[in-house]
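Weekly sync notes, structure subgroup
Attendees: PM, AL, DS (notes)

Item 1: joint prediction request from the bench team. They want all three components modeled as one assembly rather than separately. Inputs as received:
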Amino acid sequence: MKKQEPTPKIDFKSEKDMPLAPYSLGLMLHNFTGAWRNIRPEINLKECIQCGICWKFCPDTAIYIENEYPVIDYTYCKGCGLCAEECPTKCITMVEEEK
Amino acid sequence: MRKVIMGNHALSYGAMLSRVQVIAAYPITPQTQVVELLSEMCADKVLDAQFIKVESEHSAMAACLGASLAGARTFTATSAQGLALMHELLHWASGGRLPVVLGNINRAMAPGWSIWSDQNDSLSQRDTGWVQFYCGSNQEVLDSVIQAFKVAEKLHIPAMIILDAFSLSHTYEVVEVPEQEKVDEYLPPFQPKFRLTPDDPHAFGGLTSPDHYLELRYKLQKDMEKAPALIEETGQEFQELFGRKLGLVDPYQCDDAEIILVTSGTAGYTACVAVDHFRQQGLKVGNLRIRTFRPFPFEIVRDILSQAKKVAVVDRNISYGHHGIFYQEIKSALYGHSPVPVFGYITGLGGRDITLDTFRQIIEETQKNDAPSERISWIGVKK
Amino acid sequence: MVEIRFHGRGGQGTVVASKILADAINKEGKYVQAYPEFGVERRGAPVYAFIRINESPIYDKSRIYTPDHVVVLDPTLLEAIDITKGLKKDGWIIINTDKKPEEMKLPTQFKVATINATQIAIKHQLGTLAAPIVNTGIVGAVVKVLRLASLESVVQAVKEDVPIKPEANAAAAQDAYELVIFNS
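Output from the run, pasted for the record:
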């Protein structure tokens, strides 16, 4: 539920440092997909009923829960709009990124 | 205990004695009885394992991968078209470094639809990164399952036990079934070097950039290169405990042989009868049965074959447009090391019987010609 | 090395007969290899089972083409197929029939033993009247004629291999062992 902090990027200098299998090579946490976004979700917390559906549906796990309310991690949010679509009170709106 | 069991059940007993924890398999002739007996063992609680019912071989291997990644000792069995359907996931097993053990009953690929033996199904999986053991008796099948887990788990590389359709799968032979305590001594529980657990979540098999892929494959090959020594070592240990040898190859009367046959599977046993027959007639023939095909046992093959005047490779398989597959491998092993001429023979496809007479034709033709031609010698084709 | 071919019809338990014989021989410390016809199963069709017996482990994994002896579970097969195909001279033909060996009119280079295994099966209520199960009886006759194993080993093997009516099946093997007609 908490915000995931990217672990330090592992730079494999040698095959000896690498795991046997393609197992948590840690790549995706270093892929800051927030840069892909051209519309951003914004949450009107006054109408939020804390159902957790946005958190559950976010395909990039870019929503975390802080003080019992959802928070969007714009470092990773691609702006797909699934959270806004699924929100039962429609308190999430997709807003154009400022040019 | 001495029991009379069929090859399919030898696989089941091998898996049971190895204390496998998860089995996922889909039935296909001539493998069905492997899975039938294992499911009975699970239902009767003789074997404390999860039996996962699946809808195809592809799913069977997928279930095995998940189980193995969770740290379970995992077994499956299939044949021919079933193995072909698994093909994609065979790469996942080796690439994911998951030591699944698979029993494959050699059955010819369709069409024409066949349930009889040849090796093209398993040899088509040559480059998937699996260890491959070709067995010649039901005893060897049972013993090989136990050894395969030991080798596979040490190296984190999957292993395939391969046996001929009907000639082993449905043939009853006398098998010494080892005692569970001794097998436990030989094969301790699986201690994976990494595993998935909810306590420590990880992503598995994710996008691997060109920065990393080459190194992962380098490591797989380096570990595969360790397998020959490990197979010899675990085979030696097996012999000390159980009195039966499990090596890379099984040479018979090769020391002073002028012609050495290179064989695999049950043909490798019948070849010994041919060797005895020709030796009685004064012709010095030997037989080198290749038990481990992947990794290929280059050194020992070179040592044995370079002593001979002629080598005759008997292939129950073919790489269309090239030659027999063992023939190619033997030639590549000898290239630059020995000038011994290598004759290649193809026979026994689709379950055509390989008999004493087959070997008589092969030995006579090898003896008659000074040098092999590039052309394939087919034995038994009706002309 | 002794090689035997069994003839039966699909569903008669021909393969089980070869398995019981194999188990009995294993109990005597000898080596065996038993296999069915390599193919698909068809109820009622003529089927085969084969067995090799040796003092030491058997290396020949090819099929049996010239058996030393043949065993026939169903006498109607004599008109359907050539049960003597490849059979070696002086080999035994052990056949389930109500006739005596001299009534069989089989080629004289073979030796003939007869056993009414059908009657024995009916007596012990094995199978149904229409389809009596004769395989356990026939094994008793085979070991008597060919001296391959003791009756005790056969009885024990039958009890281990036959899940239904093991005692009645063992008794059938015993009866056949005593009632088989042959001149040795």
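Discussion: Chain C has one domain: 2-179.
Action: AL to compare against the crosslinking data before next sync.
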